[in-house]
Amino acid sequence: MFSNLGHGSKEFLIIRACAVLMLIYTLYLGGFVLLADEVNFNQWSAFFDNTLNKIFTSLFFLAFAIHTWLGTWAVASDYLTPRIFGNFGRIMNVGFRGIVAAIIALVLTWAVIIIW
Amino acid sequence: MSAAIPVEQIKTITMSIYRYDPTVDKKPYMQDIVVEIPTDKDIMVLDALHLAKNQEPSLSYRRSCREGVCGSDGMNINGKNGLACVTPLSEVLKRDKITLRPMPGLPVVRDLIVDMKQFFDQLEKVKPYLITKSDTPDIERKQTPEAREELDGLYECILCGCCSTSCPSFWWNPDKFLGPAALLQSWRFIADSRDEATEERLDDLEDAFSLYRCHGIMNCVSVCPKGLNPTEAISNIRNKLLTREKA
Asked: Staple partner for A89: which of A47, A82, B162, B236, CB 3.0–4.6 Å?
């Protein structure tokens, strides 16, 4: 069914799928913190030693990256455009997206180093 | 007017009106026009505008039917789009003052008149007419009463532009995002049991802007003078796009 969808529909679903995944992960992590008697370094470390938790956490950061990239593209294509800022709008748009890309790359790299 | 009506039945109001004549003015400005209105009956904003125009003959605005059918006098009344002819003055007067501006997001031709070209260009893109491929029947293309009911709440649009010009997505991308009025018409023909171009219509909306730039903030629903719901129509199109199975 997914292959039948056009560009706009795919993007719409991907953004929402990523948001749902991030919500589930947040509830999962929140549940761990709330249900644990005490969250100390050993428990925290044991939680993230679990391979499934590592995969789930990695998926969270992947979803975060995709959601952020697509979401900020939408925001930039509304507000940072030649229509609003003239020729400078294109430069602002590219600059903004470059900064977002750098932040996402930094967060992903940092996440991989910490998790794995 | 004051000569014909007893003084106790008159009150003065201030109409702050956006003025701009590109052939004369370097930039737009707001002009306060004080008019006398009767207190023994409620008049519409359009009636008050006529009174203002008696004082300032150069004041320009569109109007035609003066009963909410032609959609000519869409304007921004105290910050909210609406039709001047069906908006009672008593509902919008604040401390005996009213502020009128042209509908936002479109180029101003003069005073309260905007250039609607972009609006109608977007309407044209959705092909707002029945498209058929089968042979033309001898008499007419029939429709069940139930299928006809599906068009209620869709066909009544008068294309005044109040909805699209109150939509921020339309303000930012009026050439790419179709806007609530055009999308309502798009759904009106997708939902029509006699139309035979549903797949083509949906294909045309599959990009990231035409339909998906709607974020569902419902400004369009809030301002529609006919009480229509473009957001629901957009949601219906989206559901159709996401659940269809291509041949």
From this structure: A82
